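Justification of computing resources. Each target in the renewal requires a structure prediction run like the one illustrated here; the chain below, 246 residues long, is used simply to show the kind of job we budget for.
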Amino acid sequence: MLSESAQHYLLALRAMTDGGTTTLTSALARQLGVSTQAASEMVGRLSADGLVHVSEARELTLTRAGREAADTIFRRHSLLEWLLIKVIGLGWAESDEEAGRLQGAVSPRVEAAIAELVGHPPTCPHGNPIDAAAARSRPRGVPLSEVAAGERITIFRITEQAEEDKDLLAYLEEQDLVPGTHATVVDVSLARDAITLEGPRGRSSMGLRPAALIRVMPGEADAALFHRVPQMSLPGQAGRERALLG
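Resulting C-alpha cells:
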C-alpha cells in the first residue's frame, strides 16, 4: 500500500520520464511544488522500496516495479476522472484533484466496474494513453508550439505534465480546447512567446511553453481516436422504467 503522497510522486515521475528520459530530484520537487529536501526524503523511501532507481549522477528513473505501480495508479486515476467528469459532472481541474484523493482506495472490483460504466476508455479524459498497450497503438502527435500559423489542427492530448498546471487545465476546458476539438493556428509569435488559436469559442492565446505540452494532429483527425462515454442508465433504473411503463 502506497501513501497518497507516494502515489503522486510516482505519477509525476511517470510523466517526467516518459520516453525513457531521466530527471533530477530538484526538478521533481519543482513539479510537485515541494522542497528539495522533502522530495529527497520521498525519493529515498521509494528507492528503498525498489520503485525508483537513483543513478550515480543522481538521475531518477522508475524501476520496472515502479513503472508497473505508476501505470496501475494512472489507470485508476484516469477511470475516476472519466467517472467524475462525465457522470458526476465535475470540471477537469476538480476531477483531477478528487481522483488523486480516491485512487488509492479503489479496489480491483470497483476499478473493473468503473471501466465498464465509462466504456473501457483507451485514454484519460485529456487524451493520455491509459496503459502501455494503448500507448503502443496510438500516434504521439506533434507539439502545438511547433505548428505554423494558418494550419488546421485537432487537439489530440493534453500531456501529463500539462495536467499538473491546474490553471492551464481550467483555461483549456473553458475554451473547449479538448481532445477531438478542431482549431486553426492564427498566429505564432516568438517575440511575444505566444500562440493564438481560433477554436470553437473564438480566439484564445497561450504561451509557447504550455503549448509545447499539448499534442495535436494535423488537419481533422479520425474521430475514432477520441473516446466517448456511452449513454448509461443508473443501476436499477431500467427496472424502474419498465415498472412505470407496465
